[in-house]
Protein 1
Amino acid sequence: MRIIHCADLHLDSVMTKHFDEETAAIRRRELLLDFERMVEYAKEHRVQAILIAGDLFDTDVVSRMTAETVRRMIASSEEIAFYYLRGNHDIHSVLREEPVPKNLHLFSKNPITYQQEDVYITGAEGITDSLQLPEDGCQIVMLHGMDGKDFSLAKLQNTGIDYLALGHLHTYQWGALSEHGVYCYPGCLSGRGFDECGEKGFVLLETKGRKVLHTFIPFARRRLWDVPVDVSKPEEDVVSQIKKATADIAKTDMVRVSLQGEVDSVGEWNLAYLQMRFAEHFFVFQIKDRTALRLDMEALKKDRTMRGEFLRLVQEQEMTDSKKKAIAQLGLRALMGENLE
């Protein structure tokens, strides 16, 4: 039996923390399209069930278009059984509203078990420390949350679970649960910001008796990259360094370049120019100056400008050298007219 395990789609996310309004609106539509693409993938690869392990939606407030699209995709895919476990973001999901599609199976705080062929799928939306599972068949359990907070992996080790389908963490990871069972987070289906970089997708399962083979399938249409560029000892100009660091990244991806290292003076980079220089190379391009100022305090104390006076005042304060340096860097950037936000 083939099964897709996904989680944390966060449909209808605002995403304006990382993108402007126009880009965020495009990404919201793309998240919904990625859900549709996943369902089409399931049909093409003869997948019989899709496990959604929480946070299908980002909040309980869902646009009519998104809600109707998801409901239509599920209802029109009668050959696929959908098992939907609510997460911490979609506690009052619109999919629980009547009429619920016949092929959509829901869970509650107390464990509920469904059977499909020789596979038993058990899910619980509350805090779970132990489970009573059927004695025969392949045992798949769905939970959403973190070990030690919402459930205990240690207490679930000897309960007969063959595959623990988890949601909540946005990066793919898995590990042994018992001698033959595993736990797995598929990560989010598509990244929504630069805190969700790397490959994103879902996990494809294939059951053979009580053995569950699992394979991560990269699926997001766009990947997010946070690219460090060390400019402390530049052997070439910054533009060339950025070009080299991003040369292998697809033009349809989203890129943030972080300038790093110690430099001799503040305001050394024309960030507006660099932003414009690379903006057309990628779907999203952002640049952040995370450099630190290389300070020669003894030399700067002889400076008779406002900058020198400021540094002398900092140096006279009773605080650690690292704190003095941090204050000096912020102050000099402010004197140069930089936006410190």
Note: The first helix runs from residue 21 to 44.
Protein 2
Amino acid sequence: MRAGLVLAMALLLSACVRLIPESDGPRGPVTPAPPPVVTPPAPTGPAPTSALMAGVRPGPTVSGLGFAQSDAEAALRSFIESCPSLLRREDTTGLTQRSDWQAACDAAPGNVGRADTFFTTYFETAIVGSGEAFATGYFEPEIRASRTRRPGFETPVYALPSDLERGWTAEIPEAERTGRPPLGRRNMNGEFVRYYERSEIEDGALDGRVPVIAWAADPVELFFLQIQGSGRLRTPEGEVIRIGYAGQNGREYVGIGGVMRERGLLGEGPGKYPGSMQGIMAYIRDNPEEGRELMRLNKSWVFFRELTGDGPLGSLGIPVRRESSVAVDPRFVPYGAPVWLDLDRDEANGLWIAQDTGGAIKGANRFDTFWGAGEEARTIAGGMSGRGQALILLPKGAVERLNNR
């Protein structure tokens, strides 16, 4: 989404950004598995940076998963939408080649109505690393806004600034200038400096200098829409404006849920708030001054673009779909690949298609499930924290080829 995004962030480097509840990691049951096809690094070594480093081994048969027909049909529709990308993009996981997907993509349109047979015919399962999954949720929020500034609509929804660029600030030594330069801007003296942070933008640093798509009624709702990375603006006249991630100011993302937890504000007991998105928002509304300063700890600011089409766009540039699209770390799961989740949250169980990513979606078996728009989606996504097992569905023959490397 969001290139879509949550709640992630530094998620903000993707098309999708979202609020991710902090976690100690997966704690789901571990199913004994056969020896790895690709040997993972020693426990004392560096953290895996790819599926091959994490270790890949065959999983159970697809036919034994027992997915529901409606679930398979929804996944098949999303898979069909992903196929042009699958056949064009290089798989950064190293698990597949573009040609591996050709047969499944050719057959997919003709198998609508027979999705269960399609997946059992063309796919096999693989377990990456331990297979222990941790899944959160994101959604497409809708907030009140106006095309024009008017009383009650005072918070700007900015488009991408023309002065946002990449470069090296003077304080970074030449020897440390490796990789992609950070985002920033040129000051009045032509020197490259870091871009304005959230507090500066809220105080008017961009006033009259950056295009405004619309004016939001509630800065708190806009804050969380930025974390999600895309959403809808509904005007008093009834117009619905769909917006998506266009860029970010390059400043540090701070998950305010983690800060609140450290301060003892979240949890159970008197005076504490639930550790969900709804709980965090309730605290901010109940404590406006403290809440404003809390939000300003997150220096990141997301810029938007107006979208057309029938859904928010994921990292593949295609719409993400409710209960079918999942955000992944593309180093561990091929974009467009089917994913099977078996979690302690039943509503998230079943087939998903990897169509998005996010800055907080890092590592093997880390997923962010998409729940669409509306209050139900908001409730499910805001409280989603599921643990269990994950299987990646790869074209038949891919795991055997890895075994013979």
Note: The two ends are 35 Å apart (CA to CA).
Protein 3
Amino acid sequence: MDIKELLVQAQIASRELLMLDDRTVDAILNDIADALIKQTDYILTENARDLSRMDPDHPKYDRLKLTADRLVGIAEDMKSVAALPSPVGKEICQVSRPNGMTIRKIHVPFGVIGIIYEARPNVTFDVFSLCLKSGNACILKGGSDANHSNKALTGIIHTVLKKHQVNPAICTLLPPGREATATLLNAVGLVDLIIPRGSSDLIHYVREHARVPVIETGAGICHTYFDKEGDINKGREIIHNAKTRWVSVCNALDCLIIHHERISDLPALCEKLQESQVIVYADEAAYAILTGNYPEELLQQATPESFGTEFLDYKMSIRTVQSIDEALDHIAAYSSRHSECIISESREAIRIFEQSVDAACVYANVSTAFTDGAQFGLEAEIGISTQKLHARGPMALEELNTYKYIIEGNGQIRNK
């Protein structure tokens, strides 16, 4: 089949998907999770083929890499999704009109959701499980970096779908080339929604070239502001965790903003960062205080490019400000509206920060590493939406549904 025909088949399959009952959906997800574990050796072999073509020092390498433990986690996530209630058909509200009409607003699937993602093979299973549970067919457009891994994973999905006599086109993997991307972005009438998962460059490209509705996710330029009334011990742990827990994810810390009255505490705040070999790009005031208090080989002077950069690496910038207002201005100028944090013991400073910062997730004395569907009690997510229309923050099952109105009556007609 050519690419457009694959999309046509996915649209047909999406209508068939509406007829699946919850028990069958859950059985499919559990069976795929079990098959994933049984096929661990095969999957890791295919993943190794992808890894062999990438420099281990590349920021994407860790995202591309699958391990036995990571596969267990993916399988457990699928089983968790299977245990969740489906949002499909869930009533949002109901109104009875004076003429006897009953109007119900209910959750319904979008239909066909296209996902464009880079070197993240785990996204293949995350997307499929959430789309299936929310009643959507999924079109997967992975990058060439992960092609062997993605083909292995979708092959397992298709084997289980056929076992349950379900059309495998509900999970369609497109070829990794640019032609497939262009066709998907222009698939008006065949694809209902596109969600890009990856770098800011990928997201911007999709947004600017798509004729299909897009939800922007993923790009995270995250800041933590250490206020003049911040607690050093809390700050040290939060900053280290947000930066180093997993550097290649979108909720990782990119820029520490510090109030000038607390600049003398900067070496203590950065103490654990040097243990993790984090390269720091410090502005003039921060550079002066860190000189002699932070490893010379890890300390560099900041440039304009140091701010507004999603590092996805053991790198972080530091900006010194004179006030919370200046911190808010810096965040407004450079944030991707993903996750922003304040460390302060002042309830007034926290109130101002929470009220003023325009981001999907705003934290007070908590690491931005918690921006994650599972950590929010949603069990899984298809991405972190950084826009304001339809969905914002972690997108789970309900966010993968739109709604429609069901109007029932007994022969009512409108006279005016």
Note: The mean pLDDT is 94.
Protein 4
Amino acid sequence: MKRIILMVLRLLWKVPYYFYLIWKCGKDESITLDEAYARVKKVTKAANHAGRVKIEAYGLENIPRENGFIFFPNHQGLFDVLVFLDSCPVPFSFVIKKEASNVILLKQVVAALRAIPIDREDIRQSMQVINQVTQEVKKGRNFLIFAEGTRSKMGNRLLPFKGGTFKSAVKAKCPIVPCALIDSFKPFDENSIRPVTVKLIYLSPLYYEEYAGMKTTEIGAEVKRRIEEAIAMAESQAQL
């Protein structure tokens, strides 16, 4: 909470402008997703800088050159999406739990980036979201989905990945891009405003040919394994 307050205070004179900028993206249908993404990215970078958060991104070359793929990162906290918005060079939308989609400002970002709220308690609505994401990915949109379903609350340790979250990728036959978030829980979950560095590693994608014969639970386990391996390697290098 302290860091959010710091962000707001340091950008106080720009907050109304930034809010309007993002709000308009969700209201004006003439604004393309690319344009909306560029605006949200600009605001995100300013907020992260004001909050004394440094983003280090690795493996950008692993992001597929052709659109129509899904990022699958570990989920550490409320700051996770801001890490992607700060570092990712290509526009993406995301799936967000329904209860979080109504939070002020986040609600406007959801509208601006055409994100899709999901009600995890409603099986029918969840299936509709899976089908909607499938169709959008086939059309060339990129998505971000948290396969753990909820933040781990265990620092850099992961919860099991839910197989169902990979159904859209399987149906769309699209590239799956594992992503390792490191220390993304610190900016908002720690009661501190000290400078902090968050790392994001874009790992090599799994293409449909690689996972076509696997069950979604097996895909989830493999993506989780790759992320855990990347986190362990990064933490080991940091100790040298």
Note: The radius of gyration is 17 Å.
